[in-house]
Amino acid sequence: MAANSGDSRTASINSAIASQATGKWFGGWSGDIGSAVSSYVTAASSAGKLPILIAYNIPNRDCGSYSAGGASGGDAYKTWISAFASAIGTKPALVILEPDALMQLDCLPSDADRAARLVLLNYAVDQFAANAKGAWLYIDAGHSNWKTPDETATRLVNAGVARARGFALNVSNYRASSELTSHGQAINTALVGKGVSTRPFVLDTSRNGNGPLGSEWCDPAGRKIGSVSQVHTLGGQPEMSLWLKAPGESDGCAGSAGSFVPALAFRLISGS
C-alpha cells in the first residue's frame, strides 16, 4: 500500500493483508536474480523470518496470456534458475517452482517443446538440491479443478518431484482447502502407484476463504482471504497453508497481471 497511502482503505488493508506473511515473486522484473534473491533471504534471515519465494520465469510463461513472458530460451533459464538457487545457499527458505508450468504443458506447440520444458524443470530441481541446501522446494501442481490426480502425479514424476520436497496446489486460485486437501491426498496415492513416495504439499490460501466462483479465475467477485500462512504438520497433508498470491494483486482483469488494486484487496477482506 505504499503507493496508495492516501487511500481511505489503507488501514484496513494494512491490518488484514499487508501484515501477513506472503510470498515474493521473482522473474525478469527482478533484475540481477542472484542479487535480488540474496538480498531477500539475507534480510529474512537477519529478521528471524522464513522467506517464501516463487520462481516465475519459465520460457513461454502462461502460454502468452495475461502473465506472458519468461526467459528468452532454455539456456537463459538455466542461467537464471541456477543463480536463483545459488543465492539461497544454506539459508532457510520455502520455494515454489514455476506456477502453471506443468499444468500448461498442453498449450505448448509441439512434443519437443513439452519435453524441453520438463528438462528445464528437472534442471531447476537439481539446482536447488545441489546449491540451495537450506531450501524446501515445492513444484507447482495446479489445483483441484484442472487435471486429474493421476495426470497431475504423472507430470510431477516427469518434473522430478521425487527429488523435491513436495508440491504446491492452488497458487493464485480460489479452490477451497477441503477440496484441495482431498486432491493432494489423491495425487499422493497416485504417486505411490508410480513408484514415488508420498510428498508433503502446501496450499495457497490467500484468496480461498469463500471458495471459487465456478471456474472463473480472473479477479472474480465475492472471493475472500483464507487462513493466514501457517505450518500444520511437517511432512503432513497439507504441510502448510501459505499466502502465495498477494491478496489485491490482479489476475489481469481488474488491472494488469500482478498489479496491486486496492479495491480488489478491500473486497477480499469482506468477501464482497
Structural class: alpha/beta
The third-level CATH topology is: TIM Barrel
**Overall pLDDT metric:** 95
The description of the largest β-sheet is: 8 strands, mixed
Describe the structure using short key phrases.
TIM Barrel, 35% helix, eight-stranded mixed sheet
Architecture overview:
The protein is α/β, with parallel strands linked by helices. It has helices at residues 10-18, 33-46, 74-88, 111-131, 149-159, 177-193, 262-270, and strands spanning 24-26, 52-55, 93-97, 135-140, 166-169, 201-204, 230-231, 240-242. The protein starts with 9 loop residues before the first helix and ends with a helix. The chain has a single domain, classed as Alpha-Beta Barrel (TIM Barrel), CATH 3.20.20.40. The protein has 7 helices and 8 strands; from the N terminus they run H-E-H-E-H-E-H-E-H-E-H-E-E-E-H. It has an 8-stranded mixed beta sheet, covered by helices on one side. It is globular and about 50 Å long. The mean pLDDT is 95.
In short, what is this structure?
This protein is an alpha/beta fold and 272 residues long. The chain is built from seven helices and eight strands, in the order H-E-H-E-H-E-H-E-H-E-H-E-E-E-H.
